[in-house]
Design brief:
With 323 residues, the protein is an alpha+beta fold. It contains ten helices and 13 strands. The strands form two sheets. A ten-stranded antiparallel beta sheet has the order 2-1-10-12-11-8-9-7-6-5. A three-stranded mixed beta sheet has the order 3-4-13. The longest helix has 28 residues. The protein is globular and about 50 Å long.
Amino acid sequence: MTYFLHGIHVIYLPKMAIVKNRKLLLRGIDDKGFAIKMNFMLKEKINHLFEEQLSEWELAKKNYNALEQIKTKTLVADGREYRIQFNPARIASSAAKVDAQSLRERKCFLCSNNLPPEQRGISFKEKYTILVNPYPIFPRHLTVPAVEHTPQLIASRFGDMLDLAQQLDDYVVFYNGPKCGASAPDHFHFQAGNKGFLPVEKNRDKYKAISIESDNKEELLEHFQQIYDSLPLRPDDTEPMMNILTWYELHQWMVCIFPRKKHRPSCYGEGETDLLISPGAVDLGGVFITPLEKDFLKITAEDIANILTELRPANENSRAPDR
């Protein structure tokens, strides 16, 4: 088990860790082969889903084609690389009204009864539906809502997130908390985007996250719960504020947890002096989304640094949970 906590690399070497890793390598061929086959089958289904949706669903086709032409630029803030993406299709998410009254007054766009007639999905664990996101950030962008209309709360679903990352091992799976970038905080959902897109994948220790890596799911669940319990919970919130990224490679899960203290930065807005940026896991992982061209043109590295300072908890030196 390894933690990278706010840039501090803290290694925990559990007793018998080498034996565990050796057992991983020596697992029965049948078990390993079955898991690989299941992963392959799901990924093939998703590839087919993309082909089908981009040929039959005009909105998705239009937005994925537009993604190939979008403008990007790179800024370096506090020694970290951030790609800025001008993506007009994301304005519905960035400008989403997520107050209780607005949520009550609109139909939930993640409930199956309200999905567009062209939208198709794939069942996952009989609890979720894997959908092509019609407003993509990534070249391959998925939304994975729960079948039931239930609030965006991660505590009891982190294990499902690990399972999804393991089966979709060519994707990064991410979670935005109800006040941390989720545009549908009333309906639980993950998202996933193809690997190789986020700068944090190559430099986890640089991006001010609590970073865990392990080949043991039970240990990950235990340590996630310890971290979850250690984060502050505001009186009016339903869970500690956080964004999460996770992916699976070389038989290990990589998890980045970004604690938060604020939903949106003070610069948020659509006025000439504002920036319409509502950061989520993707932004904190190194790709900032600007749906308005004026914001794409004027945003600076100093703006990025100020936004991140506003969002992060004041205590940057908290410790990883004791073993």
